[in-house]
Amino acid sequence: MEKKLLPVIEARELSLNYDDYMVMRGLNFRVNKGDIFIVMGGSGCGKSTILKALIGLKEPDAGTVLYDGKDFWADLVLQNQIMRGIGVLYQSGALWSSFTLGENVALPLQLYSELSSLQIREIVELKLALVGLAGYADFYPAEISGGMRKRAGLARAIALDPEIIFFDEPSAGLDPVSARLLDELILQIRDVLGATIVVVTHELPSIFVVGNNSIFLDAQAKTMIAEGNPRDLLAHSSDPRVVRFLTRGERQVAAK
Length: 256
Fold this sequence. Notes:
Elements: E1 9-18, E2 21-31, E3 36-41, H1 47-54, E4 62-67, E5 70-71, H2 76-83, E6 86-89, H3 101-112, H4 117-130, H5 146-157, E7 164-168, H6 176-193, E8 196-200, H7 204-210, E9 213-218, E10 223-227, H8 230-236, H9 240-246
Parallel strand pairs: 3-8, 3-9, 6-7, 7-8
Antiparallel strand pairs: 1-2, 1-4, 4-5, 9-10
Helix pairs in contact: 3-4, 3-5, 4-5, 6-7
């Protein structure tokens, strides 16, 4: 009998609150190896809160997060080990403003590797080139555009060749051309590194370009109401909330 592969990430009955306010409840989903997994939904539905639970910034109020079948929140030592294999691109890029781009990308290598200064410099140049920023190592974040800061943040996120990369609203604040270039870069990074990618977003062009799996969160129901390939959901969903979101309200579902 063929052995069933474990998902890279699995949420089981995950619930998240802020004090007495319930954000989401009863979440069950799987992120498989090689997925570009989209966490989508309207503003205020809890997308970024789920991201925090997946990367160690907010402990769930109920349920479990598993990485390769291991309970992420059960053991701090295990959690730290798992985090070493994760890269995160935050919404703002989160670059250190007093560091050059090269110094920003070098930081995780200096902290978590035993590489020499020469080796680190070579890797920094490689990562910056991979995101289209060759020659920008000595620039400061304030000296480049918002789209370039996002790419520099991505270079830092992939400095340690993570197996999983998280993106928090990667297209936020970008013009359409820059957003499309970032989408293409996400696909390239997935293919080059063989990474699994989780993207929190409500941007429809990005969702359809990069996503092959997803969950849809509903703020009123306070849970996920759909899952699957976003293009399949667009073609086949009969839930008016999902259809309204994926068509920007341009298509209605006939009442049964």
